[in-house]
Known about the structure:
This protein is of the alpha+beta class. It has one domain.
Amino acid sequence: xxxxxxxxxxxxxxxxxxxxxxxxxxxxxxxxxxxxxxxxxxxxxxxxxx
Length: 50
Protein backbone atom coordinates (compact mmCIF):
# COMPACT_ATOMS: atom_id res chain seq x y z
CA UNK A 1 0.00 0.00 0.00
CA UNK A 2 1.31 3.39 -0.99
CA UNK A 3 1.25 6.40 1.29
CA UNK A 4 0.33 9.92 0.21
CA UNK A 5 4.05 10.71 -0.08
CA UNK A 6 4.55 7.69 -2.35
CA UNK A 7 1.61 8.69 -4.56
CA UNK A 8 2.87 12.28 -4.74
CA UNK A 9 6.31 11.07 -5.85
CA UNK A 10 4.77 8.75 -8.43
CA UNK A 11 2.59 11.54 -9.84
CA UNK A 12 5.41 14.10 -9.53
CA UNK A 13 3.11 16.42 -7.57
CA UNK A 14 3.55 18.01 -4.13
CA UNK A 15 2.01 16.14 -1.19
CA UNK A 16 -0.26 19.12 -0.55
CA UNK A 17 -1.71 18.84 -4.04
CA UNK A 18 -2.50 15.17 -3.47
CA UNK A 19 -4.18 15.90 -0.12
CA UNK A 20 -6.20 18.78 -1.56
CA UNK A 21 -7.29 17.04 -4.77
CA UNK A 22 -7.58 13.30 -4.13
CA UNK A 23 -11.38 13.33 -3.92
CA UNK A 24 -11.94 15.72 -6.83
CA UNK A 25 -9.45 13.87 -9.04
CA UNK A 26 -10.72 10.44 -7.99
CA UNK A 27 -7.37 9.10 -6.78
CA UNK A 28 -8.26 5.64 -5.44
CA UNK A 29 -7.31 6.08 -1.78
CA UNK A 30 -8.73 4.02 1.07
CA UNK A 31 -8.65 5.09 4.69
CA UNK A 32 -6.56 2.83 6.92
CA UNK A 33 -7.15 4.18 10.40
CA UNK A 34 -6.52 7.89 10.00
CA UNK A 35 -4.18 7.51 7.02
CA UNK A 36 -4.82 7.42 3.29
CA UNK A 37 -3.39 4.44 1.44
CA UNK A 38 -3.55 3.39 -2.19
CA UNK A 39 -2.76 0.11 -3.91
CA UNK A 40 -0.13 0.48 -6.60
CA UNK A 41 -2.26 -1.48 -9.09
CA UNK A 42 -5.25 0.81 -8.46
CA UNK A 43 -3.07 3.88 -8.93
CA UNK A 44 -1.68 2.53 -12.21
CA UNK A 45 -5.22 1.86 -13.50
CA UNK A 46 -6.26 5.38 -12.47
CA UNK A 47 -3.29 6.91 -14.30
CA UNK A 48 -3.94 4.79 -17.42
CA UNK A 49 -7.59 5.90 -17.43
CA UNK A 50 -6.70 9.58 -17.48
